[in-house]
Amino acid sequence: MTQPQARIGVIGGTGLYNIEGITDVKEVRPDTPFGKPSDAIMVGKLSGESIAFLPRHGRGHRISPTELPSRANIYALKSLGVEFIISSNSCGSFKEELKPGHLLIPDQIIDRTKGRQSTFLNDGVVGHIAFAKPFCPTLSDIVYQAAKEAGATVHKGGVFIAMEGPAFSTRAESRLYKAWGADVIGMTVLPEAKLAREAEICYASIACITDYDSWHEGKETVSVEVVLTIMRNNIDLAKKTIKLAAGRLSLKRECGCANALAGAIITDKAMIPAAQKKKLDLIIGKYVK
């Protein structure tokens, strides 16, 4: 049976486990060389575009940020033909003006994760992607404009601290990141953004601000209850944003994401193990034939 295809992938974060309005839905559970993705992927139509929806933490929120099968998730979406990924990510704010309930479309990341599998390029394949702009600028701009039209209070650009979790920050850590000039902090975005770039998929984040992290002594200390209360209010805005953005993506990609691996693989083709060539054919095949 032919596997359904989709140009747009949506990775739903905390609270975003489905999107109403998707039609012609088929559930697929792709096998990947990196195991199973977080859950079954819903493939269908939204705003006239083919879309694949994956709940990052699984239905019922069963998978912690540290345990996410990110390589399987990105590989599975790539296998369905996905060229664009819009992700939702809950986060805390380091700035008074970035209030709980607001959205932010980040353009930079600082990596504070530990030990996550963040590349497809290993075990005999060495490659170095350009990552100066970790989010696709073109897709991010489309998502930002869609969020404004959806009625969100949305901020364009900002630095996202990707932390390990699952515990929230200490107050000292929170104040340090604030002093660095970071805007928001969350437990996802990485390694998704790196893997998407290696897979030559455009990637953008809708950062849903739920709290002021722990730097702000005058505000309620971040807790699961606080996060979920604000997150419920953000989810509808995120869904509206995704629906609007889905209908505005050009058929032709002119950003650098589409050819991110060109010139990135430095391993001699003749030295790449045959098993690894086969395993990564979907990712590197056109460059190592």
Q: How many H/I helical runs?
A: 7
Radius of gyration over all CA atoms, rounded: 18 Å
Question: Could you tell me the mean pLDDT?
Answer: 93
Any idea how many domains? 1
Question: Helicity range of the residues?
Answer: 25-40%
* Overall CATH architecture: 3-Layer(aba) Sandwich
Please describe the biggest sheet, giving its number of strands, its sense, and whether it closes into a barrel.
11 strands, mixed
Global morphology: globular
* CATH class term: Alpha Beta
Distance between the termini: 28 Å
User: Which fold name fills CATH's third level, the topology?
Assistant: Rossmann fold
Q: Into which percentage range does the β-strand content fall?
A: 15-25%
Order of helices and strands: EEEEHEEEHEEHEHEHHH
Fourth CATH level, the homologous superfamily: Nucleoside phosphorylase domain
Number-wise, the strands total: 11
> What would you call the structural class?
alpha/beta
Query: Spans of 5+ residues with little confidence (pLDDT < 50)?
Result: none
